[in-house]
Amino acid sequence: MIWIRAAFYKCGKCTSAVDMNFFCISSLLGPPFVVCHRCGSTVATDRVEWDEMSGFGKLWYFGISLFYLGVVGLLGGISFDAAVQIIQTGEWNQSLRFSQPTFWIGASLWAVFVVLLQLYRVSCSRRRSGLEGQKPLERSFRSFQIGVQFKCFLFLFLIPVLAWLGKMIWDKVKG
């Protein structure tokens, strides 16, 4: 069994998780405060806006973004290749097929997604910094301002699962 360390940031009132990081690694960028999705109270996130980051903080963000690009690219390639295998054969025959084009297509697509996501997060942070009287960010599962690591890994996991379900349904319908 593989254990993955994660840091959870919880609401002080209802103890609901408002953010999390795998291996306790954070890009540091994001809204300093969010609204708890359960009780509505304001929760500090230990994040800072782009315009408030020091030069070292921005360098850290760039380094962590490269790290995310590598890890998510690798896992995205595996996830995409597994989905293709499942659609083609109905099962995941080989877990790591680095020599296959499907691995590199998936890795490339996910790497581009990470680059665009990190640029989007900087853009949103700059937009928030320009607002008068900053409000806490309304927490939403659809928002990629907070909880990004969890959401990306959830999608990476769901791609082969959805391929498997789709293949299973297709085979039943087809007969």
Describe the structure.
The structure is a single chain. The chain has about 180 residues and is mainly α. Helix content is about 50%, strand content about 10%. It is built from three helices and five strands; from the N terminus they run ββββααβα. The chain has helices spanning about 55-90, 100-130, 150-175, and strands at about 5-10, 15-20, 35, 40-45, 135-140. The strands form two sheets. It has a three-stranded mixed beta sheet with strand order 4-3-5, with no helix packed on it. It has a two-stranded antiparallel ribbon with strand order 1-2. Strand 1 and strand 2 form a beta hairpin. Helix 1 (about 55-90) packs antiparallel against helix 2 and helix 1 runs parallel beside helix 3 (about 150-175). The longest helix has about 35 residues, at about 55-90. It is globular, with a radius of gyration of 19 Å.
Q: Oligomer, anyone?
A: single chain
Order of helices and strands: EEEEHHEH
Query: In order across it, which strands form the biggest sheet?
Result: 4-3-5
Number of helices: 3
How far is the N terminus from the C terminus?
37 Å
**Derived structural class:** mainly alpha
